[in-house]
Automatic annotation (TrEMBL):
This is DYW domain-containing protein. InterPro entries: DYW_dom, E_motif, PPR_At4g14850-like_plant. Transmembrane segments: none annotated. GO terms for molecular function: RNA binding; zinc ion binding. Pfam families: DYW_deaminase, E_motif. GO terms for biological process: RNA modification. Belongs to the PPR family. PCMP-H subfamily. It comes from the Eukaryota. Residues 118-210 form the DYW domain.
Amino acid sequence: MPFPPDAVGWATLLSSCRVHSNLEVGKWAAESLLDLEPTNPAGYILLSSIYAAKGKWNTVAQLRRGMREKGLRKDPGCSWIKFKNKLYIFSADDFSSPFYDQIYAELEKLNEKMIQMGYVPDASSVLHDVEELEKIKMLGHHSERLAIAFGLIFIPRHCPIRVVKNLRVCRDCHNATKYISKITQREILVRDAVRFHLFKDGACSCGDFW
């Protein structure tokens, strides 16, 4: 590069290390990011996800403890979708919607079709030391999936489904949404904390890098 990388550059490299499980470069990128922005929790969170994928839960706990000691916290994930001039907001494992029974039934139906097409849940996206089945259950009820299921139920077929999320979309939900777009033949636009993702016919406009 003809100039020193800024925080966005280091965060992008760190995110790529998460995708490729490159711990060595990931540690370097995280340290460099935290040098520039010591109050940015992204460095801790992305590095934690790399350690979690490798089963290094003691190190994950140390990173979380470091965040608490510095007074840093990860914002709770939420996603929202607009329908008939009203905003519907979802969090993970959310049962507050009056339509939750329809939403969860839709997700269950989609999950069965996804598995038939070859979908395999990526439990490394769950940063908790719990049993594998519990991780898979947690993945299936992330906020963006609830919002997408709502859109599939209520948004007319000729309209794209537009969802916004306040955090970076996890790797498993990104993969699952590609399957959902192919199964339903719907365009799904997700705006997360990093970029726009247009899912169409089983592919995403980001080329699986975000």
